[in-house]
Specification:
The protein is an alpha+beta fold. The chain folds into three domains: 1-56, no CATH class; 76-145, Winged helix-like DNA-binding domain superfamily/Winged helix DNA-binding domain (Arc Repressor Mutant, subunit A, Orthogonal Bundle); 149-179, no CATH class. 56% of the residues lie in helices and 17% in strands. The protein has seven helices and six strands; from the N terminus they run ββββααααββααα. A four-stranded antiparallel β-sheet has the order 1-2-3-4, with no helix packed on it. A hairpin with a 2-residue loop joins β2 and β3 (22-27). The two termini are 38 Å apart. Residues 1-29 have low confidence and may be disordered.
């Protein structure tokens, strides 16, 4: 029984409250509720969001030296790339604002995990490069995370993760290309 209704997103989506504490969005053009038990897509992304929250909480407990998840992911990117990157390039890669990335970079620079230098090709620009200390901190963090997630890996087995990576990588690549 419908108890209340509120318009959202320029009238295209409606928020329906059918029972106390049960809120969901429904696309009125399709008439199909997003949290309908048969809505595979919504359930898939709900699982991803829940996994992300659980993983982030575990990561934050495991990361050493007051390292944050944002610091770890920036170091991970810089380790893999191993060439200088601009702050704008990093902000774009992580889909965060430039001021947010600047804040993260300042914290990494304060710990001597990165080196910030002038971009000779662009007099106003800066280039970011990971230092050996940053690489060492990254590898220590990876070891800490391996220990923190060991119970999950042992309980689930490597094969499950290998199988899950295939569709997840495909979906991530599609969404990354369409942003």
């Amino acid at each position: 029984m419908l108890r209340s209704k509120a318009q959202a997103h320029a009238g295209r989506w409606k928020l329906f409250l059918f029972e106390p504490n049960k809120i969901f969005y429904s696309n009125l053009s399709s008439g199909y509720a997003m949290n309908h038990p048969e809505n595979t897509f919504m359930n898939f992304f709900k699982e991803i969001f829940t996994l992300e929250q659980l993983a982030r909480n575990r990561m934050e407990r495991a990361l050493p030296n007051e390292m944050k998840v944002s610091h770890f992911t920036a170091l991970s990117y810089l380790v893999k790339k191993d060439t200088p990157s601009s702050p704008a390039e990093l902000a774009s890669a992580f889909q965060v604002s430039r001021p947010t990335m600047t804040n993260t970079l300042q914290k990494l620079e304060a710990k001597n995990y990165i080196c910030v230098s002038a971009d000779l090709a662009d007099g106003r620009g800066k280039l970011i490069m990971i230092t050996q200390e940053g690489k060492n901190a990254f590898h220590i963090a990876v070891q800490s995370l391996a220990e923190m997630f060991g119970d999950v890996a042992n309980a689930m087995g490597e094969e499950l993760f290998k199988e899950a990576l295939i569709p997840l990588t495909t979906i991530r690549a599609f969404m990354d290309a369409s942003r």
